[in-house]
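FAQ: What does the model actually see?

It sees only this:
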Amino acid sequence: MKLRENSCDTPSQARFTMEPSAGGNLLEVIDLAHSLRQEQLFISKEQNSFVLLSETLQENASEVSELAWICAQHRRNLSDLIVSKPETGPAMCCQKANALENVKFVSAYKAKGLKYQHVLAYTNLFNYLHGSPNLLAQCLATGDQLSRNVLSSDQTITITQAIVSGLYGNAIHSKDIELLLKLLKELIDIEIVPSEVPRRMLRAGSCAFARLYHCLHERIFSAKLFLTAALHEPIMKVLVEDEFTLEIDPAKVSINYPLKERLKK
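And it is asked to produce this:
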């Protein structure tokens, strides 16, 4: 900065004004450019780090989903071995277990014989079903009614497991668990509530609700802990009561009472 005296004023009225120098402005511009450059480098570095973290997260999520699918198949294989199904003996179960250990996953767009347009169409369909529990429940209930004499129990279980493991990712994320619970609620309203004999619908494999609940119960360990903690006390209370007679058939309840009690009731 430099000072300039006005020549038109008297010495007593002389005043000085300040003028910015060209050198000072140049230094400020250089400092500003340097700061902007540093900010640009910082932003670029953060963007690259964010992209790298996103790619790593996506790879880890895919790996977790693959491991969850393999674990679900191992669980089903073990269940078949425990119940000793005729078509799944020990040798067959061991063969399946070895095959699962060597399984390799391929991205849909890299699969041979599958066009990219079809991949997009399937993706849109699955995303729509994933976010529409009501529609999916209607489809499952309708499928139960139409396929009672067409599909075997193993085929219906396979369809249910494909929905849980494929569409809802084996219920790993809380959002998928929430959607599965909504799907169960919709199935209760569609299949259980209108039924004249609800207890028959609750038998294992009897309807879509029973199959879906079984799959969900197997995959969510926290659900097992919750049900154990919530139902342990009332169940034990019923079991230790000698006065209570347990009977699932309402028509046979009166048989367990003495004649006088039956006449009163």
